[in-house]
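How a chain folds remains the central question behind the approach discussed here. No coordinates are needed to read the tokens, only the vocabulary itself. For completeness, the protein is quoted in full, as a sequence line and a line of structure tokens:
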Amino acid sequence: MKLQHYIGGLEGLEPSSFEKRVFVQSWEERIFGIHVAMMGLSDHLEAVKTVPTQFKSCWTWGHLRKGAEGLNPFDYFKYRYYEKWLGGISGFFMESGYVSSEELDAKTTAYLENPAAPLPKGGEPAIDEQVMEYLRVGDSPKVDVAVQPKFKVGDVVTVKNPPPVAHCKLPGYLRMKQGVIDEVYEGAYNYYFSTGDGVGNSMPIYNVKFDSHDIWDNLSEPKTWIYVQIFEGYLDDPA
């Protein structure tokens, strides 16, 4: 399991940054815009089939997180928020064949030598309209599939300890801990791709209540609880 999956309650980390600005540098706005455009033009969306785009891949929040979490832990904590975005997106474009590493290096060198050089301009109304519509309606993971929940409110459950993978939807500090089902969300939910550790197919999601002392012993305040939304694939009957 990567360290970046296990930082909740971990002692000895450097103090967190309390930067309040959404974007610190101008390039961060651009990488945010690229990510949003990629989500809005992802080929898993039905509306994209009629949009004249050269982007022919599936891209979601999950893919962005996979790229960031796949970093070496030392790099993960070294780089700032949008630097991790930039690395994940750049790696995806190279792996998918949209740009070569040589082309990317050449563009990087050119802009470092001349930061004031004009940026590429585009403009396709159908693409702009699709991205704006995606921002309005989003992309819900809820699916119209009849799935019978394995657990009900009040059931005691144990969190599984799945094998480590590049991208994980389970907080590391909950592994092997027991909690109580507080709410069963209506319907079934899928994930955009199989993570390799039990999440991917359509399944229920639960709100699970944990005693903080069961997780962090006396390091937490007395009589405090934490609530975590967890895919059914990460839960099991109590041992």
Observations:
- The chain is about 30% helix and 15% strand.
- The CA atoms of residues 52 and 176 lie 48 Å apart.
- The first helix runs from residue 26 to 40.
- Helices lie at 26-40, 61-69, 73-78, 81-95, 101-113, 125-137, 212-216.
